[in-house]
Write a structure and sequence with these properties.
By secondary structure, the chain is an alpha+beta fold. It has one domain. The chain has six helices and five strands, in the order H-H-E-H-H-E-H-E-E-E-H. Helix 1 packs antiparallel against helix 2, helix 1 packs antiparallel against helix 6 and helix 2 crosses helix 5. The chain starts with 6 loop residues before the first helix and ends in a 7-residue tail after the last helix.
Length: about 180
């Protein structure tokens, strides 16, 4: 059951979900081991499901308000990296090798991804091709998403912690 009622509460919950996912990923609860402890695997699956539901609801709610100019469209923050054309499966490997979106921004073909664009990518991503990156240093946790826009394949690496911070820069509003 969702605890949140506002966008800022969503951002808080998103950070809590991300932290729980990262802790399970690194086995911090049961000691670092491979294969992961079954409880860590369960926690990763549960928090991933909760996080996806929350991200989709938040993306739709914020975008709807922005569409009618009820909140600012542009927040001058970078929440990820975007490759607008010619995305391919290798982009996931590149994102992980570059330790996330900040490394991608130093690569050819990537541009900074703002809040509204990130929300659009979350809504329009192909769920069959989604992946994630969890860095060794907290709080690195990124969604790696693919989709198409007018026939062009795109790839986005979206930082969950940066997205939550950006949501908090908007005026708070009730989740409808």
């Amino acid at each position: 059951m969702w605890k949140r009622a506002t966008w800022h509460e969503c951002a808080d919950e998103l950070e809590q979900i991300s932290e729980a996912f990262r802790n399970a990923y690194w086995g911090r609860r049961h000691g670092s081991s491979w294969p992961r402890h079954p409880e860590d695997e369960r926690m990763m699956a549960e928090t991933s499901k909760d996080g996806v539901q929350l991200l989709r609801a938040l993306a739709v709610a914020v975008r709807a308000e922005q569409d009618f100019a009820l909140v600012p469209n542009a927040v001058a923050v970078c929440v990820g990296a975007l490759k607008e054309r010619d995305a391919e499966p290798h982009d996931v490997i590149q994102a992980k090798q570059n330790h996330g979106y900040e490394g991608l921004l130093r690569s050819v073909g990537y541009v900074p991804l703002g809040l509204r664009q990130a929300l659009n990518k979350i809504v329009h991503a192909d769920p069959r091709r989604a992946d994630y990156y969890v860095g060794a240093w907290n709080p690195v946790h990124e969604l790696l998403l693919f989709g198409t826009d007018r026939g062009h394949a795109w790839f986005a690496a979206i930082s969950i912690p940066e997205l939550a911070k950006a949501i908090r820069t908007l005026p708070d509003a009730a989740m409808v």
